Amino acid sequence: MIISPSLLAADFSCLEQEIKRVEQHAEWLHLDIMDGHFVPNISFGVPVVKSLRKITNLFFDVHLMISHPLQYVESFADAGADMICFHVECEDNISEVINRIHTCGKKAGLALSPDTDVSVIGPYLKDVEMILIMSVYPGFGGQKFIPNSCSKIRELKGFIMRCPDVSNDLYIQVDGGIDEHTAHMVKDAGANVLVAGSYVFGTQNPEQSIYTLRYS
Ligand code: DX5
Ligand code: ZN
């Protein structure tokens, strides 16, 4: 099980200290990039990722909630992203974005918003290292988990099983509203990477939260 705390819920006035609170306990760090166009919110961009790269060796799991990922892939790769995940609902050619990410030597992830049918990612399943099932509408932290996300994960698992070319190592990530109750549900459904923002950074004891997510 991989836990990827979402920095969106951290105190932006002291990001280094915030990262140190989770660094020894989590495998990945989830970095939400929002452009104010694909989603109605703006977070942070390439220069922040680049600065953070200097202070931690955590695996950088970059979640691009942007309309045009293609033109930013190289910048995020150079800034130190390890995984670059973008939305299947974006306005660029999906295969082209995946290829660009791989050309940069990074892992590629494809994200699905709550209203998008799982079947949409069928053609790309064998080409990516991760599928992200969004369990809230992208754009904001602290929202309530959408329960039918579990059936989407199960459906995705079914697709993977029927598709012989898909790697057994495919990461299935869930993002949004993950806490001690929902973690159990999504793991049961087949998720192996849990993103959690407020549940980890919004507490006094992130180590305990990460432990709970991992073992609940
Ligand atoms: C939402 C972001 C999430 C967010 C999750 O658009 O993609 O990563 O930070 O926050 P919580 O865990 O608080 O729902
Ligand atoms: Zn995210």
What does this structure look like?
By secondary structure, this protein is of the alpha/beta class. Helices cover 33% and strands 20% of the residues. The protein has helices spanning 15-22, 46-53, 73-79, 94-103, 149-162, 180-189, 198-201, 206-215, and strands spanning 2-5, 28-34, 59-65, 83-87, 107-112, 130-134, 171-175, 193-196. It has an eight-stranded parallel β-sheet with strand order 1-8-7-6-5-4-3-2. Helix 5 links the parallel strand 6 and strand 7. Helix 2 (46-53) packs parallel to helix 3 and helix 5 (149-162) packs parallel to helix 6. It is globular. The structure holds D-xylitol-5-phosphate and zinc ion. Residues 6, 8-9, 30, 32, 63, 136, 138-143, 175-178, 195-199 line the site of D-xylitol-5-phosphate.
